[in-house]
Amino acid sequence: MIIRNAYVLLFEENGFVKKDICFEDGKIKQVADKIDGEYYIDATGKYITPGLIDAHSHIGICEEAIGWEGDDTCEYGNAVSPQLRAIDAINPFDIAFKEALRGGVTTVCTGPGSANVVAGTFATIKLKGNVIDEMIIDERAAMKCAFGENPRAFGKSGKEPYTRMGVAALLRKTLNDAMNYKAKKEDAEKNNKYFEKDLQMENMLLVINGDIPIKAHVHRADDICTAIRIAKEYNIGLTLDHCTEGHLIVDYLKKFDYPTIIGPSYGPKTKIETKNKTFQTAKILWDAGLKVCITTDHNVHPQESLILFAAMAAKEGLDEIEALKAITINPAEVLRIHERKGQIKKGLDADLVIWDSHPLDFMAKVEKVFIEGQEAF
Questions:
Q1: Is the dihedral of CA 195, 200, 202, 204 positive or negative?
Q2: Tens-digit pLDDT profile for residues 123-134
Q3: Angstrom distances, CA of residue 9 to CA of 6, 231, 264, 367
Q4: What CA–CA distance (Å, rounded) separates 222 from 314?
Q5: pLDDT digits (tens, 9 = 90+) for 284-323
Q6: Helix and strand numbers, DSSP H then E, in the chain
Q7: Options 2.30.40.10, 3.40.630.30, 3.30.70.20, 3.90.650.10; which CATH number does 1-50+343-377 get?
Q8: What is the pLDDT of residues 357-375, one digit of tens each?
Q9: What range(s) does the Amidohydrolase-related domain occupy (predicted)?
Q10: Which whole number is the average pLDDT over 223-235?
Q11: H or E element in which residue 189 lies
């Protein structure tokens, strides 16, 4: 298949360039000024971006238009539940999947909510298919951890934690337990002794071995600092999700290389942790040299509104191309799928979105979406 005469978003050229695109067998084969071929789409005057990527979502887990019956977001029985896996709760028939395609979103990292100190693993999936096992890109992409107000709710039922100190202490204990578990497991393997596996600790090994980062739910500035403090103590990977008050401590964040996943910055400030949220955060952090992604935190906001949030960040001063990077190549890099997705380049998956006008224009509409070369919308 060939798409001709479109304005194609090419990051190596820092903008939209008039090009043709050829894709075959799910991969981009060529991007050039002119490509000959019999079967083509005439996209004269249209704009093409990579499929959009949201690095923090709950799509398929907290389903739309169902209510509590479709809400598998949080496991309230235990504040520490690293054994949970998003793949076991994602419903591909959630109507939000089709709505997301209407907004150009082709890939998300989705998982459990923020009621638990340690909530389980997120999964990176493509938004095409009926069987979740066939939609998986990375089954265990990150370990969700939460700081601040939300996990403190366990204290109301007489369980730990009740304070921010308790949240941090429980996370440290879980990391210590994982380190001890690793040592015992290695000793048993070395000495050919029986060893009983623990599902919680097996998942935590992915964190302490550096295979996956902790995905830290953090709004308030001091909670952001606590997440960084613990990540440094245990030498583990970290993403700062929401990072609502990151702009208040930008000089501190500049000292580290932790990616930020900003948002949602839209909507009312419904709790004290979000009183300082603003669409200017993305620009301030980008100006400081930090890697910035933008999220809808679906279902807090609809998955299809991702492009709108990027546009609003651009309206508040974020460079337009950087705003588009924040929902394409940047989350692809954070999710470690950049060798497959996130930009329009030879050899990468043919995840393409055709827009009728510049995608950051409020009036822009998605005309077609391809995922791995197959038309999905």
A1: negative
A2: 999 999 999 999
A3: 9, 35, 25, 16
A4: 27
A5: 999 999 999 999 999 999 999 999 999 999 999 999 999 9
A6: 10, 16
A7: 2.30.40.10
A8: 999 999 999 999 999 999 9
A9: 47-374
A10: 99
A11: helix 164-190
Query: What is this structure's pTM?
Result: 0.97
Strands 260-262 and 238-242: parallel
Q: List, as own/partner pairs, every contact residues 279-283 make where C-beta atoms lie below 8 angstroms and the sequence separation is at least 24, other chains included.
A: 279/309, 279/312, 279/313, 279/315, 279/316, 280/247, 280/316, 280/317, 281/243, 281/244, 281/246, 281/247, 282/313, 282/316, 282/318, 282/323, 282/326, 283/313, 283/316, 283/317, 283/318
Please check whether the domain covering 52-341 is classified as CATH 3.20.20.140. yes
Q: List the domain boundaries for the chain.
A: 1-50+343-377, 52-341
pLDDT band at 67 (very low <50, low <70, confident <90, very high): confident
At 85, is the secondary structure helix, strand, or coil?
strand
pLDDT band of 156, cuts 50, 70, 90 = confident
pLDDT value of position 39: 84
- Per the listing, tokens 């990072």 go with 243
Q: How far is CA 270 from CA 39, 146, 173, 220, in A?
A: 51, 18, 31, 14
**118-126 and 136-146: which strand pairing?**
antiparallel
Residue 3 is predicted with a pLDDT of 98
Q: What angle do CA 114, 117, 121 make, to 5 degrees?
A: 70
* DSSP secondary structure letter of residue 173: H
Angle of helix 164-190 relative to helix 221-234, nearest 10 degrees, comes to 20
Strand partners for 10: 15
Is residue 307 within 8 A of residue 327, CB to CB? The reply is yes
Q: Both tokens of residue 229? A: 């403090």
